Amino acid sequence: MATDGAYTPMQHLGITDWPTISAMTAADLHDILSRCHTWEDDADPVARALPRAKRHDDKTLAAVRI
């Protein structure tokens, strides 16, 4: 599960293998969120490549294993 703040940049960056993402550790999920945040800061700080209302949106990923 991902909030829109995480999902949108993940889609833009091609991070879309949800079966693999769902099996990741908390550290792996944190790395994805960091990658998205860094991309927003460094590659698209004025939201031209990926239009958005604010520079950063909250980003949350959750994986539940049953």
Overview of the molecule:
With 66 residues, this protein is mostly helical. The chain has one domain (1-66). It is 48% helix and 0% strand. The protein has helices spanning 4-13, 18-22, 26-42. Helix 1 (4-13) packs across helix 3. The two termini are 14 Å apart. 12% of the residues are buried. The mean pLDDT is 92.
Report the total helices: 3
Query: Would you tell me the overall average pLDDT?
Result: 92
> Per the principal axes of the C-alpha atoms, what is the gross shape?
elongated
Give the tally of β-strands.
Answer: 0
- Termini separation (Å)? 14 Å
Number of separate domains: 1
The amount of beta strand, in percent, is: under 5%
Radius of gyration (Å): 12 Å
The low-confidence parts are none
Structural class given helices, strands, pairing? mainly alpha
Helix % is 40-55%
Tell me the series of helices and strands, N- to C-terminal. Answer: HHH
Largest sheet: none
Outline:
With 66 residues, this protein is mainly α. The chain has helices at residues 4-13, 18-22, 26-42. The relative contact order is 0.28.
Defining traits:
3 helices, mainly alpha
Fold topology:
Layout: H1 4-13, H2 18-22, H3 26-42
Helix pairs in contact: 1-3
